[in-house]
Design a protein that fits this description.
Order of helices and strands: HEHEHHEEHEHEHEHEHHHH
Bound molecules: adenosine-5'-diphosphate, magnesium ion
Strand content: 15-25%
Number of helices: 12
Distance between the termini: 12 Å
Radius of gyration: 18 Å
CATH topology: Rossmann fold
Strand order of the largest sheet: 3-4-2-5-1-6-7-8
CATH class: Alpha Beta
CATH superfamily: P-loop containing nucleotide triphosphate hydrolases
Shape: globular
Oligomer: single chain
Number of domains: 1
């Protein structure tokens, strides 16, 4: 497991530059809105002309395809079990957005003990050549392999609601990842905020905990309001950013996407020597361990 995870990390480190970025959408607590955020965020990124693929990592309980009203024959599980190629399990959604379903109906649990992680690496190698963003919609619970995956990706979007338990769990998750990779970029987002103040306080609390206890700077994306439109869009099986283009929550989502894209552009122009240096160091270390 450890060696495989190192290989995945190296692959993802190599992706810095022209190849696609890997971004995981995570939360401590479940049900905070990761899947709905991922789908709408990806839809808008794709509308901006970015090549985007979503990997639904909620294997056996995936809902990314359900959010856009599609039934899928194959899922990531079929690929990871070695039955199909990664392109055979990939589907096309709105705005030329691509997605790989986590599959539904539970089925048998996926066994990660064999070459499953290697297959994930291979898939990643293939996807990073064809897409600008590879978004991992993480499932519920922190399993061994999902934590390894989180340590390996380039960037993490952390979603929390304003509830103290959600904030605490989000912090614990970031603390764990930061311990394994202190260079990781974290984006913070509050979802289901009842007031602007509540949203601001939530992301600020997370940010100041990261600053104070871990000396870590994060990028605050902002907050999305509690809005019945989200539930409505889930029932209608069309992302709200498509069916309700003028709704306030869609406008906020658009601003969040802009902030995400422009932060990246800022970063590209900033001196990044220390990051490159560390990346090199890391690959030397992981080579030593292989
Ligand atoms: N901003 C929001 N306002 C209202 N309801 C929301 C919002 N975001 C998510 N929800 C609702 O919360 C529930 C969980 O969302 P989901 O995206 O499936 O969360 P997760 O993927 O984190 O488990 C869904 O019923 C969804 O409709
Ligand atoms: Mg989900």
């Amino acid at each position: 497991m450890r060696d495989q995870a190192e290989k995945l990390r190296m692959k993802m480190l190599e992706s810095e530059g022209a190849l696609g970025k890997s971004i995981a959408v995570v939360s401590g607590k479940g049900g905070v809105g990761k899947s709905n955020f991922t789908m709408n965020f990806a839809t808008l990124l794709a509308k901006e002309g970015k090549r985007v693929v979503i990997l639904d990592m909620d294997i056996g309980m995936g809902n990314i395809h359900i959010l856009i009203g599609k039934s899928v024959q194959y899922s990531l599980k079929d690929y990871l079990e070695g039955n199909l190629t990664i392109t055979e399990v990939m589907y096309e959604g709105p705005n030329d957005l691509h997605y790989i379903s986590g599959g539904s109906g539970m089925g048998s649990l996926l066994d990660w003990s064999g070459n499953t992680f290697d297959l994930l690496i291979e898939a990643f190698e293939h996807l990073q050549k064809s897409f600008d963003y590879i978004l991992f919609d993480m499932g519920a619970g922190a399993t061994n392999w999902s934590l390894e995956l989180l340590v390996s990706v380039d960037e993490i979007i952390v979603i929390s609601t304003a509830e103290p338990t959600a904030i605490m769990d989000a912090y614990s998750m970031m603390k764990y990842i930061n311990l394994k990779d202190s260079q990781k970029t974290f984006y913070l987002l509050c979802n289901r905020a009842f007031t602007v103040e509540e949203g601001r306080e939530t992301v600020n609390r997370l940010h100041s905990a990261m600053n104070k206890f871990l000396k870590k700077e994060c990028v605050i994306l902002g907050s999305l309001p509690e809005d019945p439109i989200v539930r409505k869009a889930v029932r209608e099986q069309v992302p709200f950013t498509i069916s309700y283009p003028d709704a306030p929550i869609t406008k906020t989502m658009r601003q969040i996407v802009q902030r995400f894209i422009h932060h990246r552009e800022d970063e590209v122009h900033a001196p990044i020597e220390s990051k490159n240096f560390l990346s090199k160091l890391k690959s030397i270390f992981s080579k030593g361990r292989d």
